[in-house]
Every structure is written in structure tokens, then in C-alpha cells.
């Protein structure tokens, strides 16, 4: 699949702040009114109504060796191993609290460790936490078990430890191979160590490798980023995520170290995106949508083709229908009609667990309207099309009446050739995939209110 004639001027028109829709409503809608007791009640209710439903588990490992200036994650730089030791102990305590209310028949179909830098754990800590999880949970026969790693400081023993406790997928940040760019963002990562990590992963039998790149970083040019892409294509990962640099110094003060004048101009940034999509699709990757690319035989591409793709807080996922239970500082759980996010500060996370309470800081209980809109947004972002009659049958509504305002907003995208309204279907064009977040915003009941508040979202292109 190749997107012909990418229109830079049209992309500029839609380059505005907007949610990534890893949840609906977006996280800024979460409320302090939803607390630990609400989360506990939701777990009990979920387990009662879905006693055999499969689970997706997320563990947030927030620690890093150094601060990457582009980072937008909830992370902590520490060189104190006692700090990590304490955190692992509290993670286990949180797991025990949740397991008290889960029936034994619930199996895990998906496990992910994110960060921070999960590979900042030493091999013994990896085996300890992994072994603990394997003891407390039963897994399906072919689970998706992924971990984010940083090639810097990585050893073969780290990789072997991950493999021994069941991980079969890895994702690693590259961002850019250009030394000048790496220096500007405080992430010196020679090409050789990335290649070494990939070689180890393949030797140890990891079934899927994902590489993360970022466009829009300081000193990037079309020519320099093309050289990075050439090297990445040679490495031949199963998946690629090419993220738009979210320059949000008002949310992440450390990004102020990056000088705005060193960033590519909006015009150059969009040309880098255009070149990236053309180069990767020509190399045989399928453009899934937003930032994601996958080889045609990868589960991600197959799931999109079969319309079973899903989105959660880890991005696109092939394991739809699982109840997501998340552990650790800032982690967000998602099941049935609720979201629950843990405290973002360690001291608050620890103190709630010490009190015998779930460390829930904010959350949200969805209304029926939220559930309907989430379904529509999810299918658009995953399938790149929507069948109105399917929504009508599922929710007992008349689509054109229920979403009259949304359809009105879609007209602009129709006029620009980004969306086609074809009878019973809403179809996103290949070019429209580049602005799918904007298209999804047409169905967001909260977006106008949130946009009037202080800047909270990254730009969509």
C-alpha cells in the first residue's frame, strides 16, 4: 500500500493539537471523584460479570539511567538500586491486592512492561518480577508478552532473563541514528549497540522486534532522517513506530533544554513525514495508521485487515476484548466501563498501598454515550472505516440522527478527499490516515471544552 501524492499543504491545515485516543474519553477527562473504593468496586463487578474473561497486564517500570530531553513519559532518573528494590516490593503488593478479587480462571493473553526503562532492572530483578507474575497469573497458550528495552547498558544476560520469564516481543527506542541529533536530545546510542540488541533478540528467539523513531527532533533534515531510515530498513524489524515529536515544554519542563530554533520548521517536518511514509511503504511495510508500520505478515497488519485491531494505552493491539489491569506509578487500568489511573508520584503511590488502599488517583466511569462514541472512534482509528448499520444494530440508535453534528464536521474532510461517505460506510482515504486523529475528533463530545482549557495535547501531524 502506497500513499500517492501526499499533500503537504493539506497536512498543514490539519496540524493542530488533539488526543491520541488511547482512551475515550481522553485522560484529561479523568476525575478525582473516582478513587480507590470505586476501583475496588469496579474490580469486583468486573470479576462477577466476566469471571472467565482474559486479562491484559501492564507493569510500569519508571526508572531510567539518564533523561532523554524529548521524553514525555512518567519516569524517574535514579542510580540508587535500593529505590528500585523498594518499588518492586510495592508492585508485588499491588498485584496481591488485585489478585484478591480476581477469580483463578482468568488467563493472561497479553503482558507488557513499559517505562521508563524496564531493561534498567538487572537480570536478577527481571527474573524475580517475571517469576512472581508467572506464579500469580495463568497464561493462555500463545500470549503476547512484550517489553520496552534500551540498548544502552543492555547485556546479553538482560535479554536472556527476559526470554527466560516468557517475553517474546521487544520494542526499543532508536529515535535517530544521527550523532548530532542524539547529542541534542541527550541520548547517545551508537548504531552498533542497536544492531547488537537486535542480533541478541533474534538469537534468543524473540518473535517480533519493534523500533521507535521520532521525527521533528533538533537538527533533523530530510536527508539525515532518510539515512536513519535506510539503516532501519536494513535491520528489518517486524514493526516500526515513527512518532511525531511532542514538544510540550509547558507539560514537560525538561524539554525547555531543547531550543525551539533548533527544531525543523513545520514545512520540513511534514516533508520528513512524507518521505518516511513513502520510503517505508516502498520497502514493503503496511502503514497501519497514525505512527505505526508493520510487515504484511505481522499480526498487526493481519488484525487490521481482519478488522480485529484494537487500541489501548500501549497503542495499537491485536488482543481486543481483554480487561487491562495496570500496575505501578501512573499506570492506567481499563475494563468494562471504567478507567483508573494510579498516582504519578512515588510517595503517593507508596502511601496509599501502605494504607491498604488501591493507589488510584483519578478515574472515570463511562456513560452510555461515552461507550457509543468510544466504539465509533476505535473502529475508525483501527479499521479506517466504519459501517453505520453495525453501530445502529449494536447500540439501537439511528446513526445519522445521533451523530448529526459529527457528520456535519466530517464534511470538511470529505471536501478535502480525506473521507468518503459511501452509503452505509464512512471510509478514510489513504491520505486521511495521516490525519485520523483529526477525523476521530469529529465524534468527541469533550474536545471543544478541553481545547478551551490550557494546552494539553500534542499536535496531530
UniProtKB/TrEMBL annotation:
Subunit structure: Monomer.
Protein name stated in the entry: Coproporphyrinogen-III oxidase
Family that this chain belongs to: Belongs to the anaerobic coproporphyrinogen-III oxidase family.
Catalyses which reaction(s): coproporphyrinogen III + 2 S-adenosyl-L-methionine = protoporphyrinogen IX + 2 5'-deoxyadenosine + 2 L-methionine + 2 CO2
Keyword S-adenosyl-L-methionine attached: yes
Gene3D superfamilies, A to Z: 1.10.10.920, Aldolase class I
InterPro entries membership: Aldolase_TIM, Coprogen_oxidase_HemN, Coproporphyrinogen-III_oxidase, Elp3/MiaA/NifB-like_rSAM, HemN_C, rSAM, rSAM_sf
Keywords: 4Fe-4S, Cytoplasm, Iron, Iron-sulfur, Metal-binding, Oxidoreductase, Porphyrin biosynthesis, S-adenosyl-L-methionine
Species: Candidatus Thermokryptus mobilis
Known function: Involved in the heme biosynthesis. Catalyzes the anaerobic oxidative decarboxylation of propionate groups of rings A and B of coproporphyrinogen III to yield the vinyl groups in protoporphyrinogen IX.
Cofactor: [4Fe-4S] cluster
Amino acid at each position: 500500500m502506497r500513499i500517492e501524492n501526499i499533500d503537504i499543504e493539506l497536512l498543514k491545515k490539519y496540524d493542530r493539537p488533539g488526543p491520541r485516543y488511547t482512551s475515550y474519553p481522553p485522560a484529561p477527562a479523568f476525575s478525582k471523584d473516582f478513587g480507590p473504593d470505586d476501583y475496588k468496586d469496579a474490580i469486583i463487578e468486573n470479576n462477577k460479570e466476566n469471571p472467565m474473561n482474559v486479562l491484559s497486564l501492564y507493569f510500569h517500570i519508571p526508572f531510567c539511567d539518564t533523561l532523554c530531553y524529548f521524553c514525555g513519559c512518567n519516569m524517574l532518573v535514579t542510580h540508587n538500586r535500593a529505590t528500585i528494590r523498594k518499588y518492586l516490593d510495592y508492585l508485588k503488593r499491588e498485584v496481591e491486592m488485585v489478585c484478591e478479587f480476581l477469580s483463578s480462571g482468568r488467563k493472561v493473553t497479553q503482558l507488557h512492561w513499559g517505562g521508563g526503562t524496564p531493561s534498567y532492572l538487572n537480570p536478577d530483578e527481571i527474573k524475580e518480577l517475571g517469576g512472581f507474575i508467572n506464579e500469580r497469573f495463568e497464561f493462555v497458550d500463545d500470549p503476547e508478552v512484550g517489553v520496552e528495552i534500551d540498548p544502552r547498558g543492555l547485556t546479553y544476560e538482560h535479554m536472556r532473563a527476559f526470554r527466560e520469564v516468557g517475553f517474546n516481543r521487544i520494542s526499543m527506542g532508536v529515535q535517530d541514528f544521527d550523532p548530532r541529533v542524539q547529542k541534542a536530545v541527550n541520548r547517545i546510542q551508537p548504531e552498533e549497540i542497536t544492531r547488537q540488541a537486535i542480533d541478541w533478540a533474534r538469537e534468543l528467539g524473540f518473535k517480533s522486534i519493534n523500533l521507535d523513531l521520532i521525527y521533528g527532533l533538533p537538527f533533523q533534515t530530510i536527508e539525515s532522517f532518510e539515512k536513519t531510515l535506510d539503516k532501519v530498513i536494513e535491520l528489518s524489524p517486524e514493526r516500526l513506530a515513527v512518532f511525531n515529536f511532542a514538544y510540550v515544554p509547558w507539560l514537560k519542563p525538561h524539554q525547555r533544554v531543547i531550543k525551539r530554533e533548533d527544531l525543523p520548521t513545520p514545512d520540513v517536518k511534514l516533508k520528513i513525514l512524507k518521505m518516511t511514509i513513502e520510503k517505508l511503504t516502498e520497502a514493503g511495510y503496511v502503514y497501519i495508521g497514525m505512527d505505526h508500520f508493520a510487515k504484511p505478515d505481522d499480526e498487526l497488519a493481519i488484525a487490521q485487515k481482519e478488522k480485529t485491531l484494537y487500541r489501548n494505552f500501549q497503542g495499537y493491539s491485536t488482543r481486543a476484548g481483554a480487561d487491562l489491569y495496570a500496575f505501578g506509578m501512573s499506570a492506567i487500568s481499563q475494563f468494562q466501563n471504567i478507567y483508573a489511573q494510579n498516582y504519578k508520584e512515588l510517595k503517593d503511590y507508596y502511601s496509599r498501598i501502605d494504607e491498604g488502599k488501591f493507589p488510584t488517583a483519578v478515574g472515570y466511569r463511562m456513560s452510555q454515550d461515552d461507550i457509543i462514541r468510544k466504539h465509533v472512534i476505535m473502529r475508525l482509528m483501527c479499521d479506517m472505516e466504519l459501517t453505520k448499520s453495525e453501530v445502529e444494530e449494536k447500540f439501537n440508535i439511528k446513526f445519522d440522527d445521533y451523530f448529526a453534528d459529527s457528520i456535519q464536521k466530517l464534511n470538511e474532510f470529505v471536501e478535502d478527499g480525506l473521507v468518503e461517505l459511501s452509503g452505509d460506510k464512512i471510509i478514510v482515504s489513504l491520505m486521511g490516515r495521516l490525519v485520523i486523529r483529526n477525523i476521530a475528533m469529529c465524534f468527541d463530545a469533550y474536545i471543544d471544552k478541553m481545547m478551551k482549557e490550557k494546552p494539553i495535547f500534542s499536535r496531530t501531524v
